[in-house]
Design a protein that fits this description.
GO terms for molecular function: ADP-sugar diphosphatase activity. This is ADP compounds hydrolase NudE. Keywords: Hydrolase. The chain is an alpha+beta fold and 192 residues long. The protein has 2 domains: 34 residues; 135 residues, Nucleoside Triphosphate Pyrophosphohydrolase (Alpha-Beta Complex), CATH 3.90.79. It contains 3 helices and 10 strands, in the order βββββββαβββαα. The strands form 2 sheets. Strands 4, 5, 6, 7, 8, 9 and 10 form a 7-stranded mixed beta sheet that branches. It has a 3-stranded antiparallel beta sheet with strand order 1-2-3, with no helix packed on it. A hairpin with a 5-residue loop joins strand 2 and strand 3. The chain starts with 11 loop residues before the first strand and ends in a 6-residue tail after the last helix.
Length: 192
């Protein structure tokens, strides 16, 4: 498999400025000069720097929890894994456990970070930390959702049927599904 050259010289930032801002989003313009002398202007959506978490919570070896919630970007209800921003001062694991309690009413005794992913890194600077949650017990915290989230139980043996569902389309949730399944296949003693 091809490896990325981690020593490749990054472009020099000649100028960086905020060109648009709303309550939730900031768009930044970068004027860059590449090592070969070429200059380009890029725009990117600037993240808050804290990142976010997505949690694959497994109450038992055969199943996992999903939520169905309203998504303004597509103006419909989507099925996906519990997720949310990391609060200031929180670790990834602390944020994952808080989001579980806010969104599905469980906390986890074991939280295993699987991978940090980016969504369209050419345009967004935000990252999502995918975490596997095990040994769940009932515990809830008040969340910030405008309406109650629907809790849906998924079955590992039906993961490909889930992929065929029209309301399971978020790329990060699909990545989380495969990352969690791969981890569980390689660590079959995790539920013992």
């Amino acid at each position: 498999m091809a490896q990325c050259d981690g020593d490749k010289e990054k472009p020099q930032i000649l100028e960086q400025k905020l060109v648009a801002e709303s309550r939730l989003f900031k768009i930044e313009q970068l004027d860059l000069q590449f090592s070969n002398g070429e200059k380009r202007t890029y725009e990117r959506m600037k993240g808050g720097g804290r990142g976010a978490v997505m949690v694959v919570a497994c109450p038992e070896p055969d199943s996992f929890y999903l939520i169905r919630e309203y998504c303004a970007g597509t103006h419909d209800y989507q099925l996906g894994f519990p997720k949310g921003l990391i609060d200031p001062g929180e670790t990834v694991v602390e944020a994952a456990n808080r989001e579980l309690q806010e969104e599905i009413g469980f906390k986890a005794a074991r939280l295993i970070p699987l991978k940090t992913v980016a969504l369209a890194p050419g345009y967004f600077s935000a990252t999502m930390h995918i975490v596997l949650a095990l040994d769940l017990t009932a515990s809830s915290l008040p969340g910030d959702e405008p309406e109650p989230l629907e809790l849906v139980i998924g079955q590992w043996q039906q993961q490909f049927e889930l992929l065929a569902q029209s309301d399971f389309t978020e790329a990060r949730s699909i990545a989380a599904l495969f990352l969690a399944r791969d981890y569980l296949d390689k660590h079959q003693d995790v539920f013992k």
